[in-house]
Amino acid sequence: MNNVRHIGRAPGVARQAGMVLIVALVMLLLITMIGISSMQNATLQEKMAGSVQTRTTTFEAAEMALRAGENAVSASTYSLAQCSGTAACAPPPAADYNGVTAAGSYGTAGITWVAVGTTGFYGVQLIGTTADPVNSSGTGSPRLYRITGIGFTAATPLTNPRTVLESVYAKQ
């Protein structure tokens, strides 16, 4: 009766008690770290997508304001006095763009801003005349207008991102 076998227990099992728990805890720690990293990555991607959406929205609003300004200048009855001096004909500084909150005159360039919907403004400057590059017969020099469009995301432009676009419009 010396050959008694213990049923259900392999030789050496008693020495491995607790090792499965340690391996399981290490695996759980690794899975937790991967999950946290994935959540941070998803949050960052969501912020980037929101930024791209805001940039697109403000760009479209600025482009709409710019086109409204071009349409106003293209009207046959549109007239505007030429800006006086170099400082008044220069593009408005960035501080002027940020100060525009409603239709009217703001800043150093003396531009009158016109509201376009609730998310944009345009301003026009008559910056001078130039030689007609197409018609050299001397029938008149085209007037050059600088049209500036500002687009933002909401009805409170001071606290929201904005996009500024400019174009030069030649008119006979």
How would you describe what is shown here?
- The chain has helices at about 20-75, 85-90, 95-100; strands at about 105, 110-115, 120-130, 145-150, 160-170.
- It contains three helices and five strands; from the N terminus they run αααβββββ.
- It has a domain at about 60-170.
- The protein is about 40% helix and about 20% strand.
- The chain starts with 18 loop residues before the first helix and ends with a strand.
- It has a five-stranded antiparallel β-sheet.
- Strand 2 and strand 3 form a beta hairpin.
- The chain is α+β, with helices and mostly antiparallel strands and about 170 residues long.
Q: What's the pLDDT, averaged over the residues?
A: 82
Give the strand order, joined by hyphens, for the main sheet: 1-2-3-4-5
Number of strands: 5
Helix-strand pattern, N to C?
HHHEEEEE
Give a quick set of tags describing it.
single chain, 172 residues, alpha+beta, 5-stranded antiparallel β-sheet, 3 helices
Q: Helices, strands, pairings?
A:
Layout: H1 19-74, H2 85-89, H3 94-99, E1 104-106, E2 111-115, E3 120-129, E4 143-152, E5 162-171
Short description:
The protein is α+β, with helices and mostly antiparallel strands. It has helices spanning 19-74, 85-89, 94-99; strands at 104-106, 111-115, 120-129, 143-152, 162-171.
